[in-house]
Here is the input.
Amino acid sequence: MKQIKPVVAEMETSPPPSSDTEIAIALSGVRKAYARGALPVLDGVDLTVLAGERIGLVGANGSGKTTLLRLVMNFLTPDEGEIVVWGESSPEKARRFLGFVPEHQEGLENFTPRELLSLAARMYGMPRKEALPRIEELLAFARLTDVADRLVAGFSKGMVQRLQIALALIHSPRVLLLDEPMSGLDPSGQQEVGEMLFQLQDYTLIYASHHLEEIEAYCTAVVFLHRGQIIHKTDLQNLDQEILTIDVDRRAVEFLQHREGIQLRLLHEREEKVRLEVSGSPSLLQSLLVALADQGITVERLRSRSVLEELYQRYVVHR
Here is the structure.
């Protein structure tokens, strides 16, 4: 499959920032409430997204994920604060750098994919000679060439979502914002959309989801939102670890406590049995389980979870 790359189209706007610019999106002190006197949905949000970063935006329902994306897209106006996209603080100038994939989109069903892509190209002021090959490229990328002239009303949810990604890419943005892109998809639809996302490695992403496996698959960093505030940001490349909770014979403590590359925590002990929490790389933990079995130490594996899941529990569930 041909890789789709973000090359900003020539349009009647100011010239793009220098390629040396490192900051793709910067939010400073952003606050948003939907009614006067109401509690803010976002409250003093500061967030910097570097060019090439793929940010996973994680939080419970109502934490402000969708509102943040809509503010960046200028679908909403912040009550306070500033949003700068690739050096542009003017929403009209910044929009050319942004592509948006909503969770739900009404009004597509009475059009064909080709009609919708043509309309989107005109909205961004793309010349016809530039738009036509781009439309064909995106139809192929979304695997919709064979149905390009059929009404969307007969499409599956997965086909519609692939079309929405194509629509977001029509003007070759630099940043792609995705709001729960896997919502409502069956396993086949998830795989097809996932294959598209893996082809977008050159894009800066903000990917809002509460499904941690999606964040781990498509993002390089994660931001936790709680009650309208960013409470933690971390690089996912530093979280390539697994946490095991196991019940074992007490002899396992002596065997494990001097092993390099793991962290060991005693959770509970009763007579000759102990419950341990062991964290380390998945491959190392698997080798330790084999080594314990070779020592004649019976292991009851109670639970396995990622460090990202542990952080989610800490910053979202139990906060």
